[in-house]
Amino acid sequence: MGLAVGIDLGTTNSCLAVVQGNKATVISDHIGRRIHPSVVSFLPDGTSVASYEARERQITDPRNTVSSFKRLIGRDFNGPEAMASLADLPYEVGFGPDHVPLIRVRDQEVSLPEISALMLRHLKELCSESLGAEVDKAVITVPANFNDVQRSSTKIAGRIAGFEVLRILNEPTAAALAYGFGGERSEKIAIYDFGGGTFDITIVELAGDIFKVLATAGDTALGGDDFDTVIVEEMRADFIDKHGVDLAGNTVAMQRLRLVAERVKCQLSCLEHVEATLPEIAENRAGRAIDFHFKMSKSRFEGLCRPLVDRSLDVCVEAFKLAGIDRSSVDNLVLVGGSTRIPLIRNLVGREFGVRPRVEINPDEVVAIGAAIQAFSLTRYQMSRPSAPPEPYAADKRCSSAPPVVWSDGPKGRESSGPLPAVLDVFSDASSDAKSCEGAGGEPPAGGSRRRPSDDFGWLDLGLSEPPEEPHVKAPRTSVIKRRKDVVHGAPSWPPMQQGDAFSVDIKVGATNALLLDVTPRALGIGTAGGFCDTIIERNAAIPVEQSRLFTTSYDGQTEVVVNIYQGESRRVSDNTRLGQVLLSSIRAAPRGEIKIRVTFEIDTDGILGVFARNEETGEAQSTRIVLSGGLDEITVRALVEKYASE
């Protein structure tokens, strides 16, 4: 029997943790790094690499190196969120059946669940090596506002990676578990989760060991990546002003800007001004290499990013309206996600809520810790050998007065036929059956040892003298990889990653015995005649839940009923997200309205939807559980599971 771990599969970085003894411990790699870049790179020999090794290839082979894939998983290729993400991606994205995004690398199309699985597989192997034990079960977290298709795609990714996925857990709920709220107290907490690619706000009411989600709201197209984009656009505009050259068409140059922008963002959490130098980033009209020197102040950065923070605060207002409570009733405010290290966010959020934010636990690691606690509570399994986890560290001095250091970055479908028409009328006397199962700006913590930044981030100069094999985008003619050293002058950046030092949190009894009462983030319903959407399960309904409605045939002689399933609050199907469909055939031909169809929606503890349609006259039923998404059917999923299990 293997260990159960908790995994935070993030947009920018991932983290995993395990419970040993009475501690939830963040798992490090062989040189002590606890945060792992969510990047997968496909090599010319047909293999792939992930995490730090993949990130080193983001500049040398950007078209075959996939990052920020969490922003696309479970999306509609033609949807506004996916289209907004595509503009900043250096690799090629196409689409398959039902307009599901597919990544095109090395002359092949790879689904988002498979790419996510490659990252999860890397984490699984890392965990097994670190713990010296088999790891085969996991609780994987997702943003609270993830829709059903995104959750299902994530669960499929876990299966392909070789995990038995015990639970798909909302990230804010995991954070509440990590802080061990509850016990004898009753309180309301707000969990503000600003990650690399998504934003969520969740209001949780705690009564003893019962964690009840009152409301959740979010923006799955808002995250730390957008802060990087703001800096990239500022750098690009500055380069145009200084040199009259637009870097937008140069994939390698834009990727260099993005990697430097991320470090500039991190530095500006500690410093008032940051400078960066990018040698030989482009050529002028005379063919000479251009070096780029860039400066940014904290005040300029905060001015550019204020609209992004305001967007998150608007979502907070929405969450409180859904919860039916006022912000003054919040007892605790927990910050989650790497973006919450930015002082602007901490200050504005603290002021908005009137509560000093809780930031004792590393915001990059708190979700993985909570997921590990949930995995432990679901399995109650511990390693048989005695464990002695290291004592918790107090994170490194990110804003110390140490002299500046120099950072070096080494080289780094088929068309769908579309949905069938809605063919249901609302039954005028429809019955409804339902059964529901029940100050701000905190300073960074101090302490710990300092290490060379290149060790922290793994951006080591590999000393390459030749371009990478099969480059898809050529660097400027005068640029030589071994000579290029993009540097950012400043203090050590976050997140802290210390060699040989694990982070652990004492588990409170209330956390391991917690009863989690979560909610569905969006309304769920079906398309009816006239292009309308009839809601079956309301937004923020407690899960698990089952509800059903009666409908009738919509025209005389109808022998088939197509139940199109939608997610969203609009009365028009065109404004909602289509999740799938159920086909009920062999219906007796009869006048319109004579045949009654009962449609039942059931949401399980993972927040995954099952839909059942039943002919009330004959008892014949059809069902679907919307778990086969990301362009993968069950046969394909099983083949991928077997493929990676044999490697």
* CATH hierarchy class name of the largest domain: Alpha Beta
Please tell me what the overall shape is: globular
Examine the secondary-structure arrangement and name the CATH architecture of the largest domain.
2-Layer Sandwich
* Biggest sheet descriptor: 7 strands, mixed
Discrete helix count: 13
**What is the rounded Rg?**
25 Å
Percent of residues in beta strands?
Answer: 25-35%
Could you describe the 3D structure shown?
The structure is a single chain. With 647 residues, the protein is of the alpha+beta class. The protein has two domains: 3-223 and 305-400 and 496-517, Nucleotidyltransferase, domain 5, CATH 3.30.420.40; 424-438 and 520-635, Substrate Binding Domain Of DNAk, Chain A, domain 1 (Sandwich). 25% of the residues lie in helices and 29% in strands. It has 13 helices and 33 strands. Strands 1, 2, 3, 4, 11, 12 and 23 form a seven-stranded mixed beta sheet that branches. It has a six-stranded mixed beta sheet with strand order 18-13-14-15-24-27, with helices on both faces. Helix 6 crosses helix 7. The radius of gyration is 25 Å and the shape is globular. It starts with a strand and ends with a helix. Mean pLDDT is 78; it is low at 381-483, 494-501 and 625-629.
